[in-house]
């Protein structure tokens, strides 16, 4: 196992993380560590970085927790491999990173695609998992309207949110990798195949599902997931995709209030 210190630390509200790279299944995987306490692993959404998904909640959550932010294959500061993106491989990569960091068990929080990776971690690596927080995720295609899937089939980098483009270019050592990352993300979703109900039923971790009432994923689908995952809770919060955590594309720079989900997340994590 090899780890290297990074010189590209991002300050979040005055907090400078410990950063590094770890050799993970053929990748140089980038990670950031904030605070002290029980580990909570943060897994970003598709096309994103640690900061674009979680920058607005890191300061609050790191007061009582050790946060471990990761960047997945081809995203942000992490290298790519000659293979398509899959949620299963992302889950295995995160599991290997934790092994490299000598973390035997943690809580996990994933947003959007990161929520789907979090579900896969709970299914594939249950021994690593205490609790999971799954934001704006789905497990089958009926969880999003047909136009979402049509968009993914025709997606081009021109339609990628500018905030994601700027964030990637800001931190990546290979700005030319932006199109590659976009295309791999779009391909994964365009070709997504339903997971089986028995996979969700197999999850033993305590689970908090969060979705916006105007999210990409439908409230009906969130309820369906809630019924399938044995030890789960569900929160449907007013707002769109990621608004409840202050995800970068969902809130204007003028919005300074605490993201809605922080009290819910803290209560869920603290509960025995």
TrEMBL record:
Superkingdom as given in the UniProt entry: Bacteria
GO molecular function, one term: serine hydrolase activity
Coiled-coil annotated residue ranges, if any: none
Alphabetized InterPro entries for the sequence: AB_hydrolase_1, AB_hydrolase_fold
UniProt keyword terms in alphabetical order: Hydrolase
Domain spans labelled AB hydrolase-1: 38-175
Name of protein: Alpha/beta hydrolase
Gene source species: Sporocytophaga myxococcoides
Taxonomic lineage from the root: Bacteria, Pseudomonadati, Bacteroidota, Cytophagia, Cytophagales
